[in-house]
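2024-03-11 09:14:02 INFO queue: dequeued item Acetate--CoA ligase, len=633
2024-03-11 09:14:02 INFO validating residues
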Amino acid sequence: MKEHTISSFEDYKKVYQKSIEEPEDFWADYAKTFDWHEPWDKVQSGSFEEGNVKWFEGGKLNIVENCLDRHLEERGDKTAFIFEPNQPDALKRTISYETLHEEVCKFANVLESKGIKKGDRVAIYMAMTPEIAIAALACARIGAVHSIVFAGFSAQSLADRIQDCDAKMLITNDGLRRGNKLVPLKEISDEALENCPTIESVIVCQHADNEIEWEEGRDEWWHLLMRNVSKEHEAVAMDAEDPLFILYTSGSTGKPKGQVHTCGGYMVYTSYTLRNVFQIEEDDVYWCTADAGWITGHSYIIYGPLLNGVSGIIFESTPTYPDPGRLWEVVEKYDVTHFYTAPTAIRALMKEDIDYVHRYDLSSLKVLGTVGEPINEEAWHWYDEEIGNGECPIVDTWWQTETAGIMISPLAGVTPTKPGFATLPLPGIEPALLDDEGNEITETKGQGNLVISNPWPGVTRGIWGNHERYMDTYFNKFPGYYLTGDGCRRDEDGYYRITGRVDDVLNVSGHRLGTAEIEDAIDDHKKVVESAVVGYPHDVKGEGVFAFTICNQDIDDPETFKEEINDLITETISPIAKAGKVQIVSGLPKTRSGKIMRRVLRKVAAGEADDLGDISTLLNPEVVEEIRAGEAF
Ligand code: ATP
Ligand code: MG
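2024-03-11 09:14:37 INFO prediction written
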């Protein structure tokens, strides 16, 4: 794996330079390491202005051949997936590359026998078991476009996503168990399908053994279809720019957008980023705790690890079942070397008894990663010291559903890190900061709208069925750039720190303040577990800072507490950012991927809680009631 893996900081600087000067050569060099049915005519064409970026046009390939077939000779017996089910004591199940290949070929034949063809959309609403990967890969093998919907979504959210892409088939389970909870996936699917006329067939994979209803002629069992089906399947050769999948964003800022990713560019980008950011080696055991229903699961549980021929873990349960030591138990059990999770999980586990960590031997760990939100410094240090024993590089990876793979991040052990910073761009990625008028900030040190100046292979090719929204969201505001929607600060070393979403930026007395840094300062208070800040209308300042905090103990003296918080803010940021109002809450409104939905808090803070907008992706709507009823001081 040494080839195309950067090994030192000096090397990084050289490779980065080349990748920016000669991007087509750089990406073509790496793309050549894959199996193609036909080579491409043009490495890159199209532009951000036109919203028609293409990579490897004319090339033909199948991504699944590159994930599986390509490894059979050398790694057929190697474990592709280790499955860790909800119940910790259940039998261990591992799947080799050879077996996975067989299962995918069989299921590809099943899909074809049900009339699914290249270009058809297939919705997948499943538990986190190897079958979710098999379903997705079988779609990709026959050229059908998968749309995985996170299994925590409601019937309405599932129906919305099926309708948006006119899916022809739904693949689901009877149900799933997460912790002690049963989620009746088939029942939820039945409800969703009352309003989805495009769905012709439903395949049900038996898993939780819960009772379900059956619609003859529409529903069929996975295991019955898989009997007596051939293990041979010839993968469909796809154009590099044919769609591979549609995936909806998490909906933190509004109605989810169905991102379209294509076969060639997605393959090249996810594979390259995994091997370089994580510095993965042949015998590593790689564990990304995300759900396959999010982009992190697509790129770093399914496609990225398989493209690199490594062994990965598919984890069905939750970090706190049966107790808050579960993640560390699994690390010990499988000698996990690479562990990738979200700050929200780290913050939740940090407040538990440290004995849950100390009980387990974590010495197999080599690299730790985070994704999804800015990680506050306190959580970063806890992760570093308690989980990594001060010896594992932490990669704080910034990227989006739209980007396909990691964009700004340290390369483990290669890039010197700074807590709270996503650090430097990956090769082939040219970030820039723009002021609100669209002028590029040319000084190294600065703050502004984070944009990307050059096309990279993984950039979203569209919002399904809505080119206008695609152009408006990413390309029209600052022509020639891809707009990320995130605010960012660059320090004197050129290191990038995400300051929060631009939509969430506060404007206090003319000063623009990002949410991340203020929250970082508040989280440093020993009684604060997590916080979220938003602006509220203020007569004099325009906006004041409103801080919602979750505390780990009762606050007897709110005024002193507020002063202490404001001292921390003054010390690390500026007195301008001091909180005018503080409210203690038991939870924060979060999306189903664990991110704070600040726009809901903003409405509450402004006294407009009657009109919350689209909150269908909210995990815990009940907390909104509590927050609305609570009082600030
Ligand atoms: P929507 O676009 O529908 O509002 P979303 O942005 O939450 O949803 P995702 O694509 O899952 O959907 O999340 C990407 C966003 O997550 C980024 O734009 C950024 O705001 C945040 N993010 C991801 N990783 C990091 C990180 N390492 N540091 C800071 N922020 C991050
Ligand atoms: Mg987004």
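2024-03-11 09:14:37 INFO annotate: The two ends are 57 Å apart (CA to CA).
2024-03-11 09:14:38 INFO item closed
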